Amino acid sequence: MKALVLEEVHNLSLRDFPIERDEVMGPHDVRIKVHTVGICGSDVHYFTHGRIADFVVRAPMILGHEASGTVIEAGAEVSTLKVGDRVCMEPGIPDPNSRTTRLGLYNIDPAVRFWATPPVHGILRPTVVHPAAFTFKLPDNVSFAEAAMVEPLAVGVHAATKAQIKPGDVAMVSGAGPIGLVTALAALAAGCARVFVTDVDDTKLAIAASLSSAITTLNVTSDPVAQILKATDGWGVEVVFECSGSAHAASGVFDALAPGGRVVYVGIPNAPFPYDMGKAMVREARVEHIFRYAHVFPRCVGLLSSGAINVKPLITRTFSFDDSVEAFKIAATAPKGEVKMQIELPQ
Ligand code: ZN
After folding, report:
1. Residue ranges of domains in the chain, CATH in brackets
2. What are 4-59's pLDDT values in tens digits?
3. I need a surface site. Which of 77, 147, 233, 267 has the fewest CB within 10 A?
4. Cα of 217 to ligand 1 centre, how many Å?
């Protein structure tokens, strides 16, 4: 089948790729016609660097993991989905018998097979076979484009869950990329009264500010810590979400944190960084880290359907499948004003 293949670093092609033999249906699987796929920072990073941490592209690999589509075949034992259902798909399939999965931590199962993480192929192809248990039916009022945002949104919802947000909490999100923005939306949906979003890029901050009147944007060059302390009568924020991956931001997470506050590290810094443990201790800060998400797709679909979260303003550009190589070249330049670019497959 025709697929978007990362042949090696800096080399993408849209070509026939023999994957049909991997697409044998089991009784608990569904076959899905792929409709929309979001371009993730990780896809772009594999394109431009050929690796993320210890995951190295050593053979041609199909990209893409943020996807929605339509069920075109259901396995004999599948009772939750039927042909014609519109769905979104969770891209990581753990080993159901692993120790981490049985502990309820399946997202950190070392054996998890996650789309477009070498050597596992991604989803920028016409069809895919996927376990029904990791495939989620969409209500009529959630579009394919919104449904392809469920995967990044799941990161924000998982982060907000880890933060144990209480109604009225004030949060800060550092980094206004797609993950920072979905985290801010998830924090508001979880009950935050106000969210400060920081970034270096004013075009990203303008998009953040447009999402909610409860979002206050601060450029990192304007001493956001001083501004947050001023706006909170010196108390600070109850929750800090570090979504920028910047070592500077990651080491400064306690500066605006209120006593008893929580920090959730979401962005992956590209190198180890120091943080001031003394500042953490005097606040009795609780520090959490997340990796992807575990079983929050149904919640995300519910939040989109009810209108509690609106991801539509984040979808800034849509390409046809035929233009997907061009789409990645554009994404690799990190164009200002773009948040989430998506690719639509022919139906
Ligand atoms: Zn992603």
Report:
1. 2-149+311-344 (3.90.180.10), 155-289 (3.40.50.720)
2. 999 999 999 999 999 877 789 999 999 999 999 999 999 999 999 999 888 999 99
3. 233
4. 24
CA of residue 224 to ligand 1 center, whole Å: 28
Which is nearest to 37 in space by CA: 68, 6, 82?
68
In this structure, the dihedral spanned by the alpha carbons of residues 219, 220, 221 and 222, taken in order and rounded to 10 degrees, is: 60
**Spatial CA neighbour of 197 closest among 218, 227, 224:** 218
Q: How far does residue 76's CA lie from ligand 1's centre (Å)?
A: 31
Ligand 1 midpoint to CA 126 (Å): 19
Type of residue found at 2: K
Tens of pLDDT along 293-329? 999 999 999 999 999 999 999 999 999 999 999 999 9
CA distances from 320 to 38, 213, 271, 325 (A): 12, 34, 36, 10
